[in-house]
Hints:
The complex is a heterodimer of chains A (459) and B (412). The longest helix of chain A is centred in the first third of the chain and has 21 residues, at 2-22. Chain A has helices at 2-22, 84-103, 123-133, 146-159, 188-202, 216-233, 250-263, 274-286, 312-318, 333-345, 355-374, 380-388, 408-411, 423-428, 444-448, and strands at residues 48-51, 57-60, 64-65, 70-77, 111-118, 139-144, 163-166, 208-213, 236-241, 267-271, 292-295, 319-323, 377-378, 416-421, 434-441. Chain A starts with a helix and ends in an 11-residue tail after the last helix. Chain A is globular, with a radius of gyration of 23 Å. In chain A, 41% of the residues lie in helices and 17% in strands. Chain A is an alpha/beta fold and 459 residues long. Chain B has 2 domains: 42-287, no CATH class; 305-412, no CATH class. Helices cover 65% and strands 4% of the residues of chain B. Chain B contains 16 helices and 8 strands. Chain B has helices spanning 11-15, 21-36, 51-76, 84-99, 113-136, 140-160, 162-165, 204-227, 230-240, 242-247, 252-278, 288-301, 306-336, 340-348, 371-389, 393-407; strands at residues 172-173, 178-179, 189-190, 195-197, 200-202, 280-281, 349-350, 359-360. A two-stranded antiparallel ribbon of chain B has the order 1-6. Chain B has a two-stranded antiparallel ribbon with strand order 2-3. Chain B has a two-stranded antiparallel sheet with strand order 4-5. In chain B, helix 3 (51-76) packs parallel to helix 8 (204-227) and helix 13 crosses helix 14 (340-348). At the A-B interface, helix 1, helix 2, strand 5, helix 3 and helix 4 of A face helix 3, helix 6, strand 1, strand 6 and helix 12 of B.
Amino acid sequence: xxxxxxxxxxxxxxxxxxxxCGDGEGGETTTTAAGEEETTTTAAPSEETTTTATGAEIATDVGVxxxxxxxxxxxxxxxxxxxxxxxxxxxxxxxxxxxxxxADGGVNGLQVELExxxxxxxxxxxxxxxxxxxxxxxxxxxxxxxxxxVAINPSLQADGILAIPLTWYSGWSDPAINANxxxxxxxxxxxxxNMIEYLTLQAPDATTxxxxxxxxxxxxxxxxxxVLAAEALGLEVVYDGTGRINAADEATxxxxxxxxxxxxxxxxxxxxxxxxxxxxxxxxxxTGFEALWSGAGPTWNxxxxxPDSPIKDALARDFYISQYYAxxxxxxxxxxxxxxxxAEFAPDAPPLDYYAEGVIEASILHQALLAAYEAGDxxxxxxxxxxxSLESVTFNGLAPDETYVGEPNDRVQRAQFIxxxxxxxxxxxxxxGATLIESNYTSPIAEAFEFTEACFxxx
Amino acid sequence: xxxxxxxxxxxxADQALLNTTTKRVMLGLFFLVxxxxxxxxxxxxxxxxxxxxxxxxTTAAIFVIGALGLNILTGLAGQVSLGHSFFMAIGAxxxxxxxxxxxxxxxxxxxxxxxxxxxxxxxxxxxxxxxxPTAVRVRGLYLAIVTLGLVFIGEYIWRNWDSLTGGAQxxxxxxxxxxxxxxxxxxxxxxxxxxxxxxVEFSGAAKAFFLxxxxxxxxxxxxxxxxxxxxxxxxxxxxxxxxAAEIMGVNEFAYKLLAFGISSFxxxxxxxxxxxxxxxxxxxRWDLFLSVQFIAIIFIGGAGTVTGTxxxxxxxxxxxxxxxxxxxxxxxxxxEGEGILAAIADVFxxxxxxxxxxxxxxxxVGPGLSVAQLNLVLYGLLIIGFLIFEPFGLYGIWLRIRxxxxxxxxxx
Lengths: 459, 412
């Protein structure tokens, strides 16, 4: 029995290690709305009305304490799952933004506090933590991941709470499911239209394209746009690896790489996470394959052109970086603000592009809170209504302006940023590995695209 | 013979489920407390009635069902299985096959819960019996590896069978906890939305909690009874010395298969209930870590005991929340407080992006484990610790406390 126990202990520890390492699959994901409309009606939390110093009457329920002078905002973050490296930086963006707001007197005198929870990118945990925070926060500064956000969406609607999705699934602009969500940035499918048309401008003679992606809404949504763009541009899809990339399975990476290289495509559109992308690109390159490459935003990571990367020079030649916001070193007023915030509130933090995402999310929420205060209703429902009535949220060049009123086709974001890899700048500390070449870029195909519902739907 | 503990004059009395008054009283109290939780009346436990804690307890009740199954296979019959999450997945996908919406883009027949829930258990059991023959050929470490293989085969199938599972990283919605006679609207009983029962207002969370508690109690009763039958004793004899068991006339092959079947039945039910309760599940949910959680429940609670399964489940499911609240409290101490406690807390938690700390409560760019990672580390340490120092788990600790007080003050 003792011997058995020892072996068991070793085995179980191995099992834990395996379990901890196994979850390497990248790529955010999702689906459409919950199959059926739920008509849950929860008892409304007790609402109070307080008269502020200025004489205005402000209604509050959860997450806003006028006496203590605080506003509590929730963040459902993936801090230990596949997106932890990105989301930790994004949370720093939130932190420094609110620190600066608080230092300047807060939101009309109210100090903003963050309640951060680690969902580990697990749907059940996400739902569980949502239930925990919904009685503490006035709104969610972000909800990481598409299946996770879809899972809490019926509850968000029943509880009347606002959330900012931290994923760029086109469904977030679909009126069928976005009643409680305010998205930002160009959705995956419109992004691929932008980028593929941009690639054809760089290679006007190209007639063939290869596309490949991770499974899930991320890859499927992106490739839906890619196929539309290819058709409109008269490009022949010579390799279609939609959903074929499994980050945890090297064999699929080799298969996709040889598929792309063997197709002889002149343009390549890949939608995955940085590690599998690096592997696929490297393997295709090793066969002597040469083409113009690009990929959806989350495919890129500056480490791909780090000083030790064997593919950095080839990427600098072949790759176009698609971005939802301007990179760190860009010249806009918004970028300067991010750099100042990091210098002031997180002086030892390294320069990275992703603080911008946190700052953007926080800015949207900030505008919504101000509007809700203005309207005298800082309840959860009041903040939601305020966010949904924002006609223009500007980020001073950090990201394209957003609007949340009007028809889906009028408010869906189509503009984005395009950069080139900059290994020399990264090595020298002048940039974060990306040099901005296009700001607020919208391609004619994306402009003409009629958006009424999610590009990729699932029942 | 009243008042003489441990003196039994009949076999029935000796084998009774609750053979002492203390056990009867404690079980009664336990149920009273459980029932009262949603009403928030017991001082000190009122917080358990909040919706998020109710959800956590409901999840624990579902895990109890799954863990009871693994306990029969691993605790009673001595067959270590890492494939429990595979059988849970089978249960969940049978449930959605039968109970999922009809006529949608994904497979579903729209049948009511009284069909899909038992079917989830039965089909999982059949699959368990079907893969059993390969598994009963091997023992111990090798069996663990065989069952480990099932998890990976399953994950591959679930990721790629889009029309059933919704596809990798997408998943689908599972049939809600609603009781219908057939396909009528509205449902007869709805465990997802609030309503008034017997003049009392119940939230959806409270209703789901009651439902799962009943399921868990029935499962526990069945498991406990199984232990006291010929089958249960045959399982234990195989666990303790399989060759000796065969010499005594226990058909090792048949009983091992039976153990696999029963265990998979429990797993299938638990999988279906879990998916239905969470509502949306992605194929990646049924991974190795889920199996490891069940193994942890068995060994932390105490292998082979029903009480231990309850203790282990409560521990494993509530631990992450307790660790989370503890670190948040430490964070508050470290940022606001002064003195020795704050200094100690500051070493433990990193509160700002550049602060040093074992645990990173504010997740920024900086060192430190996140709360979920800390939990993984704790699971590992606890499994090692229990296997080496307390093989009977929490139940063993309880036994020692009980025996100490039984003989008190003449402990030796």
